[in-house]
Amino acid sequence: MPRKLIFILLTLMLSSGVCLADNYVGGIPLTSVQNGTVDGGVYVDSYYGTANQGINDEKTIGHTFTLPDNAEIGWAMLLTTVYCGHMQNNYEGTANVSFNGVTLGNETLNVPFNFIANGGNDGEAYVQVNDHVNKVTSDYMMYYDVTSLVEAGENTAVVNTAPLDGSFDGRIKLITLVVAYNDGSGDKIRYQINRGHDADTYYVEDYQGETYVGSTDFEADLPEGSSLVDAELTVVHMASTDGTYTFNGNNLISGTPQGTYCGSDTWDVKDDLKPTGENTLTYDRNAGFYKCALAILTTEYTTSSSDDTGDDTGDDPSGNTSEETSSSDLGVQTVKVSHNGLAKAWDNLNNTVSVTVINNGPEDAGSFVLELYSDDVPVESRQVTGLANGTTETVDFSWKPEEIKDYTLKAVVVPGSIISDADTTNNELSKTQEVLHNGYAGDNPLESYAHGTVKGNIIYDYGNSSYSNKVFSGDTYSVSHSLELPEGATVKFARLYNFWTWSATATVGVIPSMSLQFEGNALTPEAEYDDQKGWGSVYDYPTGTWAYDITGLVTGSGTYTTVVTNTHSDTGNFVCFDGIALLVVYEDSSGKEIEYWINEGCDMVSTMSTSGSLTPEEATVEIPFEGSIDLSNVDEAHLWTTVQSGGHDGICLEFNEMNTSGIYDSTPYSDLDIDEARSVGTYLLTENNRARIIPPLVTDNSGDYMVPSNSILVVSYKDGTSATPALSLSASTLNVTVGKETEVVYSVTGDDSPVEGALVNLSGCATGSGTTDANGTVALAVNASCEGAITATASKDGYKGTELTQQAREASSSGSDPDAEASLNVTLIPAVSLTLSPNSLDFGTVSLGTPSETLNFTLQNNGDTSIKVTAEVVDQEDGPFITGLLLDQSIWSSYSKAIAAESSETSEAQLDLPANYPSTGEFQGRLLFWAEAA
Q1: Residue 871 has what DSSP assignment?
Q2: The domain over range 834-933 is classified in CATH as 3.30.420.40
Q3: Strand partners of residue 193
Q4: For the segment 855-897, what is each residue's pLDDT rounded down to a tens digit?
Q5: Which of 614, 578, 603, 604 is nearest to 703 (CA)?
Q6: What fold, for 727-809?
Q7: Is 2.60.40.10 the CATH number for 330-434?
Q8: DSSP SS3 for 783
Q9: Which fold has domain 467-588+600-706?
Q10: Which residue numbers delimit the DUF3344 domain (predicted)?
Q11: Is the pTM higher than 0.70?
């Protein structure tokens, strides 16, 4: 069905609100109810309630718990929760709880609950029914000491509920048994059990503009000289969707609830544990409602009482000179890898390997060496000056892997001659580390397409380009350029740039399939540049710049139209276009002599929080302008740069010693940000000039994602000629097939005349060389050995050299080139016509937690049939418009408007964000309207 798309530009400035705690519903934060040391462990098991229990009737649930046969009980608790049916109303019922045949309680459940925002329960955020029953919202929680009742082997708990009125629900959510036990093994396991009834609902955000993240602390106090063996954290929750968790600031992976309304998670937290002091667990909802009931931390450790001494008479790599020896058990405790604090490792970037060593005693250790190996190849050796008994020290190494693969990292302690280390089994530790490529790094410098001279100038024009939104299979995108050349000027060469982004089939990123027509002529790209994130599970979409030679198709002034069609066979495929640019280098007898460098490419970079923790320097895009310049003869110089997805005043442009920011200001628009003809004459160098485009820090308005794609440097000279003539190089084709020998004719000119005797040299994926004849040409047999770039350079004494880049690609799936082709043309008229007024909504400055003013817009159906209009928002992930844009007082995703033929409808837009929305600053987005025949 044909659809019509229009959009509104959305802008606003957000100012922050303040949020301290959850004040709406209430609850009981988790606190310690038991701790101690055992040699067996802590047993935790649950019955997790399901939706198939009856409602408003009597029910009985039994569950059997099986402990180890050799368990000797140290402490035990049975916990159960019952759902009454309403968060505040008093629906009355009973609960009878027994364990191993012994009745623990006959509970009457008949109290209301008031949200703390409504005054609470005698001022409290919960109801304490008796000394072992409490109520928070719709749940009663009952907990009993069953230490004397638990036995080794099987134990059975039974919970019976019954209504006292017609509304009591009575479903049983949890029956949980927690047991700390000994087994005679002699192991040392410290434990702490925290219990609570802590609620986290969306009410606090929607109604108070606040957020609540629960937390509970565990006190660690491992004995001096002990060595941590294991640490395990368990959470029991009541929620149909698991929450999000951190332990000491490190994210934990959430699971899937085992029951309809509850579940548990268990994590290995050895690497994150602090052996002394507070260890903090945080928990937060992932859906509308979440409760945390239990959190249990166990830490297993060993202690060393060895007084053995050793006699190491071998070499001493530690550099010790003292004759006095100490008895110390040195060990490698952990090996962790990160990139600027993120637990990832990227190829060709500096990553940090943090190695923690421990002295298990019994004495202080003198100086020793810590070595790091990568696949058994030494990375670095560091000296540790000493380590007291019972203490640890973390040593950071810098590691820059060059390949994408799994590496084996190994840390080794070398004690040296003055340390007697009787136990060497813990002196080394290995870790398998995955290394990925981060496409957000600045790793694709813009390449030089052309470098030459001309008496004339250049035109770089984006026409009526605009961001396309998603162009699905079979749909088109068109741009027109109005070109005005000086009278008498002729075109030397012309080039078309197709800037595309977000190409995918459904949610899988793919290189686009598209056809391009320029003035009705079907063209294939002469060069294809693309880049992609290459990691993660979401938004791994490529973006690119495709360049087309249109020299013979641009003959002078006039309007030139480009139409791009998505030709992918899958109807779920889409690609977005940031715009199309037209470059013309023209000759003009009345113009100045200029020298030009034209660079093109695609380097997707980011410093946002989703970038993989890249720094601006790591995400910098390099733009080289090779060759020499006679500065004494320079009149002026100008630089053009094009950045897809710019629009951030923190982006910095460097040109040699020039450093400026605030220039990528969404001109002409943020998706195609062009800084035109910037004067750089005072910053020119005599040779090898360089530009760099640097994204902002993540702390600067959340960093930025951007794709530098074009850069043009033009230098004009005072007396009309450059001091040294520059060579121009062209090729009969810029694309060759790997493994297929192709004859390519290279043409070299200088001052628009053929140059004889110029050396043309190939490097990269193909090699070869030759010297031009009197016509300035040389034919080379190009046989590419790999897929990638081929660099062709031209040089001759008395001239400035130049180069161009060709692409070698694998053969097509058919294995052969077509024998003939025909272009296809058709003119389509819309079945649906929709216009919008105005086409921009500016919400101004909005305070978080306070709705914006209401803005009206009008949709006009210009067609002869009724249409249905729906809305879509294009915004950054979890951006302010996706989060809080209201259309006709409802969230934008529910907007639907029927408009009769040749009539209009007016709607209103408002932005309403919670006070805890995590970002402030200036934002832009797009509001799209889709229309289809009703």
Answers
A1: E
A2: no
A3: 34, 296
A4: 988 888 877 788 888 888 877 666 788 888 999 888 888 888 8
A5: 614
A6: Immunoglobulin-like (2.60.40)
A7: yes
A8: coil
A9: Jelly Rolls (2.60.120)
A10: 23-299, 439-715
A11: no
